[in-house]
């Protein structure tokens, strides 16, 4: 666990050293803040003490931001050859994958923590549903963790960051949109399966403050699968070298 934490801290520090973290956080706060408070169906227009507008915007902004921050996770290491050096330092492939996953998750958590003033402000303006708000943030963290695992897997497949970004977007597109569309096109068991595979179904459930074990199983299963596949690809590359 100590090695994982060291790797995570080093990776997280590299994001702030290269300004990636600052750019990501500023863009995320700028976009989410603009659409939450000023544009379209803003909080003032719906006249409710609720963060549902913010959660709806974040559902999309994080979908694009996460592949952008994970694309370099292993792709850059593969390109430069530093992944082989890292693998020889008594650090297992699993520790490398989990360390990188944790660093990306912490970066997203920091970005979301910066939006807590939204919560405090709205709570001061009206009677906010605290359960739904907590559920919404929890849903964003789980969804982010899912896309981080997909992003790391995509990054493990190539040494090109742009390719890794596009692969992560393509895979994420199925969970984010396509399964939801397919669920509406089919009925019965098939429709139910596609509905369960849709990230929107589980995210909206959590953002309403409903904590269901099926939602947790869904997210943790995809996170686990993404990390296991990433470790498998990394192990295969190291074995070939």
What characteristics describe this protein?
single chain, 241 residues, mainly alpha, 13 helices, 83% helix
Description of the structure:
The chain is mainly α. It has 13 helices and no strands. Helix 2 crosses helix 7 (93-113) and helix 7 (93-113) packs across helix 13 (213-240). The longest helix has 28 residues, at 213-240. The relative contact order is 0.14.
Kindly state the number of beta strands: 0
Order of helices and strands: HHHHHHHHHHHHH
Overall helicity: over 70%
Q: Determine the structural class based on helices, strands and strand pairing.
A: mainly alpha
Helix tally equals 13
Tell me the fraction of residues in β-strands, as a range.
Answer: under 5%
* Biggest sheet statistics: none
Shape: globular
Oligomer: single chain
Question: Average pLDDT value?
Answer: 85
Brief synopsis:
It contains 13 helices and no strands.
What's the structural blueprint in terms of helices and strands?
Elements: H1 2-17, H2 20-37, H3 43-46, H4 52-70, H5 75-80, H6 82-87, H7 93-113, H8 116-125, H9 130-156, H10 161-185, H11 188-197, H12 199-207, H13 213-240
Helix pairs in contact: 1-7, 2-4, 2-7, 4-9, 4-10, 7-9, 7-13, 9-10, 9-12, 9-13, 10-11, 12-13
